[in-house]
Amino acid sequence: MALLKDVIGRVFRKGDIYTKYSRCQYLVVLTGTGRENGAKAFDRLHTTWKKQEGTAGTLSYSMESLVSFRKLD
After folding, report:
1. Which of 53, 57, 66 lies closest to 27 in space, CA to CA?
2. pLDDT tens digits, residue range 8-59?
3. Is 45 exposed, middle or buried (0-12, 13-18, 19+ CB in 10 A)?
4. Among candidates 63, 66, 14, which has minimal Cα distance to 38?
5. How far apart are CA 39 and CA 33, in angstroms?
């Protein structure tokens, strides 16, 4: 997982935020990015990771817009 952390740190923009979510998951916040560009960002991450990791392991993602969350009073 240290390799994935390194690749995430290199692939995403400086203004984006990431943290380890669990033993094998990371949470990444892409600021000012829609679904289409988020998918492109994951593709960049996946391509870079595969070049380093080879064929072992898989990556997957899910995406949620913070705009869709309702403000709590």
Report:
1. 66
2. 999 999 999 999 999 889 999 998 888 899 999 999 999 998 888 766 778 9
3. buried
4. 63
5. 10
Q: What is the pLDDT of residue 64?
A: 87
CA dist 31 and 34 (Å) reads 9
Angle (nearest 5°) at CA 36 between 31 and 38: 40
pTM of the full structure:
0.78
* Among 64, 61, 65, 22, CA closest to 45: 61
Q: What's residue 65's pLDDT?
A: 82
Three-state SS sequence of the chain: CHHHHHHHHHHCCCCCEEEEEECCEEEEECCCCCHHHHHHHHHHHHHHHHHHHCCCCCCCCCCCCHHHCCCCC
